[in-house]
Amino acid sequence: MAGGIRTKQRLSDTVAQALQEDILGLTTGDRLPTEAELVERFGVSRTVVREATRLLVQRGLAIVSPGRGMTVAAVDGSVIAEQYGLLLRLGGGSFEELMELRLVLEVEMAALAAARRTPAQLAELNRLNERLQAADPTGKEFLEADLTFHERIAEASGNPFFLLMMRPVNTFLADTYSTGAGYPSEAGHTVQEHLEIARAIEAGNPARARFAAEDHLRRIARHRSLFTKK
Fold first, then answer.
1. Which CDD domains match (predicted)?
2. Where are the beta strands (DSSP E) in 62-199?
3. Region for 77 from its dihedrals, namely left if φ exceeds 0, alpha if ψ lies in -120 to 50, beta otherwise
4. What is the residue-level pLDDT of the chain in tens, covering all 230 positions?
């Protein structure tokens, strides 16, 4: 029995790997072969195909929906976000350690954005800061403008891996602030710090952008620590 299970697992891994290679050549929303077609193609049972499908869904590469079957999923970092949440809930990491990750990523990300940003990206950063200034600091719009600002800096860095990391970080932060004790923004400081980051990026000054981003994130980490102790 045990040997049979191992064989089945190897077959499903082989099928999943072959389909993964197919997916790399497709685009989001493209349909993948039906269960019957996969059974015929690989010469395996429906059980093996279903296990392979489960693996692809688990990896965030495919979506299974009624009427459409299996299609190529958008790689949006949602699987990574889920892992962040599980890690924190299971005590494998703390909010402070997540802030350490943000410091490592976002400080250099801001410096790269200062060197690489386009006029359209700069205009978007300024638009988000205007939205931030106009929003109620206790409302959802303020939080959305805040987190989106950091995501747009990731885009402006010109490095797609930064964006892939920032989206799940922002998803987790939004969930944490929405369901936890609230958003400890210190709104006045957040607005001014965002303005300084944007000015540094607009000036094309990586050193200044790096300093402004680090100052902003370290202040948030300090305030979060004080906020959670109250």
1. WHTH_GntR
2. 62-65, 69-72
3. left
4. 444 444 555 899 999 999 999 999 999 999 999 999 999 999 999 999 999 999 999 988 999 998 889 999 987 777 777 787 777 777 777 778 888 989 999 999 999 999 999 999 999 999 999 999 999 988 889 999 999 999 999 999 999 889 888 888 888 888 777 765 555 557 889 999 999 999 999 999 999 999 999 999 999 888 766 545 54
The predicted model scores a pTM of 0.73
Query: Could you count the other beta carbons within 10 Å of the beta carbon of residue 19?
Result: 23
- Continuous segment of H or E residues that includes residue 134: helix 119-134
